[in-house]
Amino acid sequence: MAERVALYLQDAHDLRDGLDYVRYAEKRGFEAVWQAESRLVRDAIVPMAAYAAVTDRLKIGSGVINNWTRNIGLLAATFLTLDDLAPNRVICGIGAWWDPLARNVGIDRRKPLKAMKETVELLRRLLNMERVTFHGEFHHVDGIELDIVHGRREPRNVPIMIGATGDKMMELAGEISDGVVLNYCVPPEYNDNALELLQAGVKRAGRKMEDLDRPQLVVCSVDHDSERAIDTTRELLTQYLAQQPHIAKASGVSETVVKEIQSTLGWPATKEQIRKAKHFVPEELIRRITASGTPQEAKAKVGEYRRHGCTCPILYPVGGDVSLLIDTFAQM
Q1: Which of 59, 120, 164, 210: CA 20 to 30 A from 171?
Q2: Can you give the residue range of the structural domain that contains 135?
Q3: Helical H runs in the chain?
Q4: Residue 188 lies inside a defined structural domain of this protein
Q5: pLDDT averaged over 10-residue windows placed end to end, the chain, 332 residues
């Protein structure tokens, strides 16, 4: 029986190469491709549109956009447009962003739960082709609807999945979303607590856990040389543990390690700074919170995430041979 598996693309590859990767992933039986949007480097929507245009079956997800920087009308119109390119294949993954990045561009992430709840409610209603008037704390709209004159006017099937890391956001995802995008750089047992939180939200909404999809980002460096795969991942963790403190906290990394890395890295970090600081990241940590190593080692680790509640691993090839990763997890 085929297992669900997806590909995650960020900014380490040429955009045109990304088109080849998604076509090959579709050919080898992958279910979806998710495009990152986190640091100030590559937006998600443009690559998603390109992936949608060159594939026929693959689902296309945002992994994840934030709920602060696009007004609700534009957000709905964006996913309407993507659905026009790939009907019934688009997934909206959305998250609450993170500090200090949000703060540094002038976003005050106050009451992130309330802001997310309003965004998901209005986005869902607009994609359902409703005419919406709403005056909340974060969104104020008067009689707006998706203004379709030429094209399909039927409600759009765009699942909304929350990228949750914190406990309260995880509960909210269980309550209001179609699924949760579980974070990467965490050990498989992190999911055990996440499932309890999701269950609390599901129960509050009178839903069933089976109704909630739980794809998970997994850093995955595959190489026939295990040590080379580990070293590739070490560079990624060096950057992310320094710049995204919510991930460092969720993965249980000591503050000492984070501060040592931060003392070397600037913002944005350079390749030279990352290589200088990477020795602070121990191999034990890499093996605990990522699927890095030979194809056999990577598959075994991904299996652990599945056993701890992940419904579809979203594999992030941090470097090396992307085709080898796709072949390792191919379903056809």
Answers
A1: 59
A2: 6-220+296-328
A3: 15-27, 45-54, 72-85, 101-104, 112-127, 167-176, 190-204, 226-243, 245-251, 255-262, 271-277, 283-289, 295-307, 322-328
A4: yes
A5: 93 93 98 93 97 98 96 98 98 94 93 98 98 98 96 96 96 98 94 98 96 97 95 87 76 81 84 87 92 97 98 92 96 89
